[in-house]
Specification:
Low-confidence stretches of chain B: none
Order of helices and strands of chain A: HHHHHHHHHHHHHHHHHHEHHEH
Strand order of the largest sheet of chain B: 3-2-1-5-8
Distance between the termini of chain A: 29 Å
Enzyme class (chain B): translocase
Largest sheet of chain B: 5 strands, mixed
Radius of gyration of chain B: 27 Å
EC number (chain B): 7.1.1.9
CATH superfamily of the largest domain in chain B: Cupredoxins -  blue copper proteins
Mean pLDDT of chain B: 92
Order of helices and strands of chain B: HHHEEEEEEEEHEEHHEEHHH
Shape of chain A: globular
GO biological process, one term (chain B): ATP synthesis coupled electron transport
Number of domains of chain B: 2
Number of domains of chain A: 1
Number of helices of chain B: 9
Distance between the termini of chain B: 50 Å
Oligomer: heterodimer
Helix content of chain A: 55-70%
Membrane topology (chain B): Multi-pass membrane protein
Strand order of the largest sheet of chain A: 1-2
Strand content of chain B: 15-25%
Structural class of chain B: alpha+beta
Radius of gyration of chain A: 24 Å
Number of helices of chain A: 21
Strand content of chain A: under 5%
Family (chain B): Belongs to the cytochrome c oxidase subunit 2 family.
CATH class of the largest domain in chain B: Mainly Beta
Structural class of chain A: mainly alpha
């Protein structure tokens, strides 16, 4: 994508990306892989909507439909939304705190490759006997009854990619705690860094619950244990608890960084500092904390009894308070500002009412007694798409437009960007608003068809038409990306003109060491402060010196590949003789390369300060 | 003048129809509650919607002002405002108060709907005073057992109106969820335990729904989850008692009355009866009740819960159940039947009526 890469030739570029430990290149890898899976998940969504366009449709069969709906949910959550957000975190967060990289560059690469191989493994199920068909929640009685290897692909694939996510989360936590530039106190961190921090903490506590649940289910399916086998004294409700103890915080893992992206975009294009910064931080932390207290609201109809249901209902309602604080703070950031309606700002502005709608239906769902009606209907489908598409996907699209120049050094086309926005915005509401009513009229979710004469026809057709708008919007975005990459008109440090935070103080794309000299941070929105005092860039906090950088490594790729191989062995162990040897081989590759990494000393290398001064002032000004 | 009144009435009816179509079908929609449970849930929905609409209006007003008033007009730098304690306290406290207004009835209703203490009050014989029905969910059909009355039926639940009916819910294979949208919210049929709840079927609502409510499975349970429907016949108390008495009176299978039907009965007795009972007594153990009880099959409105009950549809189902309900458990359990055999079976099954 960059001119540098084109000069190097394709083979060298590929090798560079396979071995890179640079957070900016890993960010690009996350964006490419996440973007690809987003398209796959989107295609699955289109199949779902085409099937439901008319009653008694036979576009896809009942069994295949369940595979598509499972893969749509699983792909969108684990393989599209999270990696895309991880892409932004990698690309932006270290720059925002004035760091030269993340704390553990090697682990960062390992996290990506684990996610990548897990995702590829999961999607290979389409070609190897059928995809998982028990829903993304994979409730134990159904997933244990599911025939074939579909659910095994789900379990092993998520286990591998989940490990990658956990590593990524820990890495971001350590980075934010340890690597902030001089003067960058916690309460001066940009909101996107704050939300990355809280989301990473949520990953740290939530993913182990998923890992344990998947591990137990994997043993039930592949190694003959009975954790969830009711007949043998197991209990399937425990799966539901484990899944949702992970699953609910997961919602906040996704949506908090989305809040973060909007909290960056809104001040920039309003030319005004974020209103109520400290209450925004407080609300973020509180949402993260409460996010762990409410998982059973996904289980109101399981029969936990009125005491549990009432407690979880009230706890869930409480989350509305910090979320409301955020909504008002965004509005009052714009209030009195000077708003420029760029494409990212379009998304940010549209996000507020859209997310509000998802939020208020969330409070409605929290009313346990009424939830007995909403639960597992299209009302819920509408609700979580308002939250996840209206929050997360809007943020990803906004972030793509907003950070594209910082990542690739060239601006996406604004006119095409606005076309994408309007098509997506209209299509989204057309698709999902009506689904609230479908649910209230009695249409359960996860149905492969509906019978005529129940009053569901018109609304479903409208919903399908809306989905096509979103599909066209995505195609326009792809065209935009291609055109932009071909034109490749270079931009400077601060292409939007009103950048406030540190990432806009260095070239686009930044040099591989980010900051020639670490900047001195003098308050919230450090670049803005310097600009207002008439300076062109940041004041350095250190004299020009040698920069210590890590070496590239192919080991993360090999470690992840070993687990990928082992997963096939584990899955086919009972079917074929080669299963067990392949399992052992895969593990040997993984542990062997870990051992290699442990015994080999890799001290990295230094960029000498002479080289830095020669470098026609590509680094930080001053 | 008269014409005008008529016209007015017409437009009123059209308007009502429009509003009602916005509320879904009376036999299926949660927005046309036909029972105490659905009613109180509907009230809670309305309350929460009203509060939320209030919030939406306030936010929308601020939102619109912001969009129109603060568009960039010149390149000046606006005043950098840190925040406002007063405002922040306002939008923290007011939502808390609003949520309290919602939380109190939510908690009360949650406890009310979970009150199944009447199920514990039993006489010397161990029967409850209240009507209790054991619901057993199976891939992809429903069994309804009346333990006090000692009868079993399937696919079409029969209940009396205007009294509380208590349910024991469980599943015999994977997790399902028992839901009659117009009458009340759902509860899961777990594989691990028995869930209990109650519903009340309103006679007026039942009338509006043509005495037949739609029931659904609300938890993904396999390929035919979408087709795991059942129906609920809500009868006035006397009619219900009479139905129970009639069912209890059937000790021998209903005899076929035509030659063709008798032929069908023979085929049935040679193969189908292994799984399908045609007597309503609940004496056979549960594990042996592998398929829907067909005692009153001819009285039911639907075949397999989804096709209108007529001989053509029975034939359609018998010829190839797989196309009607993919992955059902009946496919391939019986050999190939000739068209004549299917005709005979359909004739026999349509004649399985207890309400003459």
């Amino acid at each position: 994508m960059s001119t540098n890469a084109q000069k190097k030739g394709f083979g060298a570029t590929l090798w560079d990306f396979l071995t890179t430990v640079d957070h900016k290149k890993i960010a690009i890898l996350y964006m490419i892989a996440g973007g690809f899976f987003f398209l796959v998940g989107g295609l699955e969504a289109m199949f779902i909507r085409i099937q439901l366009a008319v009653p008694n449709n036979d576009f896809v069969g009942a069994g295949l439909y369940n595979e598509i709906l499972t893969m749509h949910g699983t792909t969108m959550i684990f393989l599209a939304a999270m990696p895309l957000l991880f892409g932004f975190m990698n690309a932006v967060m270290p720059l925002q705190i004035g760091a030269r990289d993340v704390a553990f560059p090697f682990v960062n690469a390992l996290g990506f490759w684990l996610f990548f191989f897990g995702g590829v493994f999961l999607n290979l199920s389409w070609f190897l006997g059928g995809a998982p068909d028990a829903g993304w929640t994979s409730y134990a009685s159904l997933s244990l009854a599911s025939e074939g290897h579909g659910v095994d692909f789900y379990l092993l694939g998520l286990q591998i990619s989940g490990a990658g996510t956990l590593m990524g989360g820990i890495n971001f936590l350590v980075t934010i705690i340890n690597m902030r530039a001089p003067g960058m106190t916690y309460m001066r961190m940009p909101l996107f860094t704050w939300t990355t921090f809280v989301a990473s903490a949520l990953i740290l506590f939530a993913f182990p619950a998923l890992t344990v649940g998947i591990f137990l289910l994997m043993f039930d399916r592949l190694f003959g244990s009975n954790f969830f086998v009711t007949a043998a004294g197991g209990n399937t409700v425990i799966w539901e608890h484990l899944f949702w103890i992970f699953g609910h915080p997961e919602v906040y893992i996704l949506v908090l960084p989305a809040f973060g992206i909007f909290s960056e975009i809104i001040p920039v294009f309003s030319r005004k500092r974020l209103f109520g910064y400290s209450s925004m931080v407080f609300a973020t932390v509180l949402i993260g904390f409460l996010g762990f207290m409410v998982w059973a609201h996904h289980m109101f109809t399981v029969g936990l009894g009125p005491i549990a249901n009432a407690i979880f209902a009230v706890a869930t309602m409480a989350i509305a308070v910090p979320t409301g604080i955020k909504i008002f703070n965004w509005l009052f950031t714009m209030w009195g500002g000077s708003i420029k309606f760029t494409t990212p700002m379009h998304y940010a502005v549209a996000f507020i009412p859209t997310f509000l709608l998802g939020g208020v239906t969330g409070v409605m769902l929290a009313a346990a007694a009424a939830d007995y009606q909403y639960h597992d209907t299209y009302f819920v489908v509408a609700h979580f798409h308002y939250v996840i598409v209206g929050g997360v996907v809007f943020a990803v699209l906004a972030g793509t437009q907003f950070y594209w120049p910082k990542m690739f050094g060239t601006m996406l086309n604004e006119a095409l960007g606005k076309i994408t926005f309007w098509l997506f915005f209209i299509g989204f509401h057309l698709t999902f608003f009506i689904q609230h009513f479908l649910g209230l009229w009695g249409m359960p979710r996860r149905v492969f068809t509906f019978i005529e004469g129940q009053g569901f026809e018109t609304a479903n057709l409208v919903s399908t038409i809306g989905a096509f708008f979103m599909a066209v919007a995505t195609v326009v975005l792809l065209i935009n990306i291609i055109i932009t990459s071909i034109k490749n008109e270079k931009v400077g440090n601060d292409p939007w003109g009103d950048g406030r935070t540190l990432e806009w103080a260095i070239p686009s794309p930044p040099p591989f060491y980010n900051f020639k000299q670490l900047p001195l941070v003098r308050g919230l929105d450090p670049l803005w402060i310097e600009k207002m005092e008439g300076k062109k860039g940041m004041t350095p906090a250190e004299p020009l010196g040698d920069i210590h950088m890590p070496n590239n490594s192919f080991t993360p790729f090999v470690i992840s590949f070993g687990l990928f191989v082992a997963a096939f062995g584990a899955m086919y162990r009972l079917d074929y003789n080669w299963g067990l040897p392949v399992l052992i081989l895969g593990m040997a590759i993984t542990f062997g390369s870990m051992f290699y990494r442990s015994v080999k000393d890799d001290h990295g290398f230094h960029i000498h300060k002479e080289e830095l001064t020669d470098d026609n002032d590509k680094g930080v000004k001053a | 003048m008269k014409k005008l009144a008529k016209w007015r009435l017409f437009s009123l009816i059209t308007l009502m129809a429009l509003i009602l179509s916005g509320c879904g079908k009376p036999y299926l929609s949660t927005l046309q509650p036909a029972g105490e449970v659905a009613k109180s849930q509907f009230d809670l929905m309305v309350l929460s919607t009203l509060i939320m609409v209030g919030v939406i209006i306030i936010v929308t007003i601020i939102f619109l002002i912001v969009l129109f008033r603060f568009k960039r007009k010149d390149e000046s730098i606006p005043k950098q405002v840190e925040g406002s304690h007063k405002l922040e306290i306002i939008w923290t406290v007011i939502p808390i108060l609003l949520l309290l207004v919602l939380a109190v009835p939510t908690v009360l209703e949650t406890f009310k709907l979970a009150d199944v203490s009447a199920m514990d009050k039993k006489d010397e014989e161990g029967n409850t005073e209240a009507l209790v029905i054991n619901v057993r969910a199976n891939l992809y059909w429903w069994e309804f057992e009346y333990p006090n009355e000692k009868i079993v039926t399937s696919q079409e639940l029969v209940v009396p109106t205007d009294q509380k009916v208590y349910f024991n819910l469980k599943s015999s294979d994977v997790k399902h969820s028992f839901w009659i949208p117009a009458v009340g919210g759902k509860m899961d049929t777990n594989t691990d335990n028995i869930n209990k709840f109650w519903l009340e079927f309103d006679s007026k609502g039942a009338e509006a729904a043509g005495e037949l409510f739609y029931g659904k499975c609300a938890e993904l349970c396999g390929p035919s989850h979408a087709l795991m429907d059942f129906k609920v016949r809500a009868l006035p108390s006397d009619d219900f008692d009479q139905w129970v008495a009639t069912m209890q009176g059937i000790e021998e299978p209903v005899q076929a009355d035509t030659a063709k039907a008798q032929e069908g009965q023979e085929i049935f007795n040679n193969s189908c009866i292994v799984c399908h009972a045609v007597t309503p007594a609940n004496t056979t153990p549960e594990a042996a009740r592998q398929a829907p009880n067909l005692t009153n099959f001819g009285d039911r409105a639907y075949v397999a819960g989804i096709l209108e009950n007529n001989e053509d549809n029975i034939k359609k189902w018998l010829t190839d159940p797989e196309t009607v309900k993919p992955a059902n458990k009946m496919t391939d359990t019986y050999g190939d039947l000739t068209p004549e055999q299917i005709d005979a079976l359909a004739a026999y099954l349509s004649g399985l009526k207890v309400q003459k």
